[in-house]
Amino acid sequence: MSFLNKSILVTGGAGFIGSHLVDALIKENPENLVVLSNFFLGKEDNLKEAIEKYPKLKIYHGSAADYETIKRIIENNNIDLVYNLAVIPLPASLEDPLWSTLENVKIALNVCELLRKGSFKKLIHFSSSEAYGSALSVPMNEKHELNPETPYAASKASGDLIVDSYYRTFKLDTSILRPFNNYGPRQNAGKFAAIIPIFIKKIINKEDTLTLNGDGKQTRDFIYVSDTANAAVEFAKNKNVIGKTINIAIGREISMNYLAELICKEMDFKGKIVHGPERPGDVKRHFADISLAKKLLNFEPKVKFEEGIKLTCDWYKKNLK
Q1: Is 83 considered catalytic here?
Q2: Residue ranges of the chain with pLDDT lower than 70?
Q3: In this predicted structure, what is the pLDDT of residue 17?
Q4: Which of 152, 166, 224, 316 is catalytic?
């Protein structure tokens, strides 16, 4: 697929990963590029560079969980391809599981139903490694069972099953990108923030204590956000991924203790790290098998973890207010 003469919608496009995807898509020079965001965590500032490079970028404030809203945007802009990143994040599901779960399931159903009805042609749906739950075997390939440990994770697993069911039943052009833990510039540092921006923000604010949930031996497979965005662009170009779910990660297991040590080193933090209670439903171990992405997409992450942490810390030093 060439992006020339194509009209693309990115739901959740003002968010952390979504805005980086928008940046990557602009390089492909699409005919029309549209963002839909409810700005739950997304920010217009995340799209500042995108607007400078692509002044005709259209930004809609609304929810992809509202069928009539997303239908109108897709049909009014003659959308060909939808990247579905709209989501209510994990920490919100710990505060309001009913609402957040329903919203995430509605989002998946809405885009699938509009694809089935011919409102657009191709869907690339973003999953989450949280759908797997803690690793039962490593490395975790796409056949690893779905064993979600939080309402958020269950909603993401549900969305994946919905997308896959529409592919199987109606022979639609769908694919599922399942990213592991993304990090990098623009990651939310406010409410519902993840550990990397939380730690960096505390250090910038000259706090002398950082708290790790649990014993810090939990592991994640972190990936720098631009690598995920570039992989998503390749998804649209490659027919081999239709009907498939594919892991996107670096294929490396990293403990929270090592992550904390690395951030402290980069930020020249001289305070102390303490351990607090475990977070409810916290995944104990993640380590991705990315051989399918390598085989079908020639995927190879470009940013090594230590390099990515340095780039991330540098960005927050310059931009965090």
Answers
A1: no
A2: none
A3: 98
A4: 152
